[in-house]
Amino acid sequence: MVVAAAPAEVALVLTELGLVVLGLGLLARLADRLSLSPIPFYLVAGLVVGRGGLVTLDVSETVVAVGSEIGVVLLLLTLGLEYSSEELGANLRVGLPAGVLDVVANAAPGVLAGLALGWDGRAVVLLGGVTYISSSGVISKVLADLDRLGNRETPSVLSILVMEDLAMAVYLPVVAALLTGGSLLAGLPSVGIALATVALVLFAALRHGGVLSRALLSQSDEALLLGVLGTTLVVAGIAAQLQVSAAVGAFLVGIALGGAVQERASLLVGPLRDLFAAAFFLFFGLQIDPAELVPVAGVAVALALVTAGTKVLTGWWAAKRMGIARPGRLRAGTALIARGEFSIVIAGLGVSAGIEPALGAVAAAYVLVLAIAGPVAARYVPALVTEGVERSRPAPAGH
Amino acid sequence: MMAEVEETQLPGVGVRYDFVTKEGDRVGVLAHRTGRRELLVYDSVDPDACRDVVRLDADDTQTLAELLGTSHVSERLADLQQHIEGLTIDWLPVSATSACAGRTLRESALRTETGVSIVAVVRGNQTIPAPGGDFSLAPGDTAVAVGTPEGIKELFRLLQQG
């Protein structure tokens, strides 16, 4: 640890870092102006200034790399914090059928594409995860922006997001274990161990999470924020040491926290997550040579088209089960199309493990397409279809 | 008859309450975890979608609740008064000439005489709630009495002259 860096060095680091954050801030502003998710903008920025890009960024990459690690941890912490254990439990009973359809319909295209490309088994499993998981961040923002939170089809959308959240609790440790195994088959025994560990931790968290929540609860926002953040980083560090992946550790902390701590912590961590997640997306883009995108563009776009369709199907069916009429089913389906932060997190696990060089590029191109197309489709497709249906109806008599 | 309110949990967002009005419109309130509220008016053609969404912060919610609530509260009060019709509550002064002054409530046997209960006595700036049988009334006290109008009249007479 550098305690006394030369003043000139400090000045340089601060200026560089400031410029990077400022640049990301401008991109976020642009994305907001266009009512789009900032994620694709950060990715493109990373592509442009990174390896093989137009200009190379001089910022000490370690700074961005550490920021990006914290970004993953905070993304997973907030994913765990998003729903209380009661909400998870209640939803499991109602949402299971739609959740199962969601996994089958949306992971399958990714898995098939990976197999067709002749990828390593572990990369195939990761690509299935990339195409499976919707972006709960982008989707909740779209629903709020379009004033659809109160709509009657929205519970079926949220229910699917909750099921995906639960699925991550199983999927992430499995992937982490597979990646340490060296190959798909060699990883299988450690998958069993990882799953057992996570099941144990989950059980303890749901049963005795109150102890942790009470210990961290404080009147002071500062004390609460630092306590939660510190606990999460320590657990993430230990998890990484045990080869269970830091992301899994952070996620479990999020799940374990409940009650007042959960609600306040998710508000307090939000802004920090936005900062570090931006660093994470930037770093992910930095590692990819834009030239790598060209050969995989076809695959990524085809995958995006197919899995946009399968998500619409999933949402349609889930809404239909809840007695929602056709226009509402279409709104539910199109709302779910967006992929984003978690697809990148999953691909990032593979990239940092150094398997399948094309995985990062495919995931980046895929998310670029769907993080932009998802919100646009959610906004315009339902209205266009409804209009089309009305126009095709015979004009009412008497005019 | 109040309409049945449907409650729907929205994981990660809050709770939605909605009901169908007598006229057949579906109206709802979305209570965000953050305390923000949205007033929802559903569409008549597409009953799953909202035709209008009004965002309300904590103050707006108070204002709207008060506007909607006032008439409701006064209706309720009128209701309540009907239930205790036939019963009167009154504040009666105790005069120095009254036979009751200086005697305990048990000795004057006011309740047996009039059927009226003295539920409290105001003496100076002090209030004695639920005075017992050993409590003696003093000139200048005010007795808070509950009973029939006839009983109250009778008690008033006793407390004035005795």
Describe this structure in words.
- The complex is a heterodimer of chains A (399) and B (162).
- In chain A, 81% of the residues lie in helices and 0% in strands.
- By secondary structure, chain A is mainly alpha-helical.
- With 162 residues, chain B is an alpha+beta fold.
- Chain B contains four helices and nine strands.
- Chain B has helices spanning 58-83, 105-108, 110-114, 149-160; strands at residues 6-10, 14-20, 26-32, 37-42, 50-56, 88-93, 117-123, 126-129, 142-147.
- In chain B, a hairpin with a 5-residue loop joins strand 2 (14-20) and strand 3.
Briefly, what is this?
Chain A is 81% helix and 0% strand.
Essential attributes:
heterodimer; A: about 400 residues; mainly alpha; globular; B: about 160 residues; alpha+beta; 4 helices; about 30% helix
| Largest sheet entry of chain B | 5 strands, antiparallel
Terminal CA distance of chain A reads 81 Å
Please state the structural category of chain A.
Answer: mainly alpha
Low-confidence stretches of chain B: none
> Helicity of chain B, in percent?
25-40%
Q: Helical element count of chain A?
A: 15
Query: How many strands in all of chain B?
Result: 9
Roughly what is the average pLDDT of chain B, rounded to an integer?
A: 84
Q: How much helicity do the residues of chain A have?
A: over 70%
Question: How much strand content do the residues of chain A show?
Answer: under 5%
The general outline of chain B is elongated
Q: Using only CA atoms, what is the Rg of chain B?
A: 27 Å
Tally of alpha and pi helices of chain B? 4
What's the total count of β strands of chain A?
Answer: 0
Radius of gyration of chain A: 21 Å
Low-confidence stretches of chain A: none
What topology, given as strand order, has the largest sheet of chain B?
A: 1-2-3-4-5
| Strand-residue proportion of chain B | 25-35%
Assembly state: heterodimer
Order of helices and strands of chain B: EEEEEHEHHEEEH
What average pLDDT do the residues of chain A reach?
Answer: 86
